[in-house]
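Hi everyone,

Forwarding the result from last night's run.
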Amino acid sequence: MMTRGSIYHYVCEMLWMIAFGVIMTACSSDDTTDIPDVQPQEGTELSVSTRSIVIDDDYVIPEGAKLWLALTSGVDVTSVGTYRYNNSSEWTPYPAAKVWDVQSYYLYGALLPSDNAVCSVTTTTVFSQDAVFSINGVEPVAKSGNDPLVIVGVQGVSDPATAWAVTEGNFEYVGRKVDGQDNVHLLLDHLYTAVSFSFSIDADYAKLRTIKLKKIELISDLTKKLNLTINLTAGNSGVTPITSVTATTSTDDASTTIVLFDVSIDDVDSNDDGVDISTMGSGTAAANAISTSCFFPSVISNLSIACTYDVYDKATPTPQLLATRKAVNSLSSVISGTRGQIKNITLKIVPTYLYILSDNDLDNPTIKISSN
């Protein structure tokens, strides 16, 4: 079992990292939520470049993800901005947040998988000491890369090319280091638990059968989306600022079936016959396409995995398709976890014919499940 909340890496174009800094430019805002009544020309606005910020080595920002940022001062939210991640690996403001004065601000925010989630931030004292961050309307179970992330550190710089050196727990940002252009690097942390799946075949079974995966789904018993509340403490540099994360159910319907992999959609093979489990080594396209999902810990009481696969007989000169089978197995005994954790779950497909090889392979067979 690995932790990923404390694992942060740099991302740059030549390495396998995700990155962005934050630069101030100017445009008008059509979102007046928490934005003070001030003249637009007095503020410089936030734009996002592909500079340097990182969560962990496995995280890939999905196209269309939304970055929500709030600049705060005292007990007030002075400006809010949102940004969309596009297919050119760039961030486009819709609209940008604004900096109004040469002063210290405290910057809070989150990276969201879609527009469906709604953010807000308040404080119990002043924003220089703490923040209560809310993310409402998120899926309790999602594919990898679709989990919400929260900002846990910022680094103000006068030049966006400045090396990334964010200190966890520091939210202070001094606005207008350079007139008309401010920059900030950000650090984000996971709120969900990740589940990494791997598949294998019983050795004796593999001598007689070829198994080709066609579809993998997660089935959750939670029918409503979640509202998350994250309590953050500011000023403790070098220490995680997340003191608690709690969830309540919303009134919005959640997706109870999440497709992790579908060979007819995912580009992992040259045809639609399925992916031979015996070829799914670590790091292959097939393994990467289906290996990871995520869920909010403590709210899921029943999570199942459904695997649809074709069974081929190896006894014939050309492997003969015997049957298409779907196995639904509970993950309830292995899904407990904590925020930012990666759980590794192995699913072994065992023999499903009855007494002799001429018998059909059974439908809905039990798959041996183990975790570490």
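The chain has two helices and 25 strands.

Cheers,
N.
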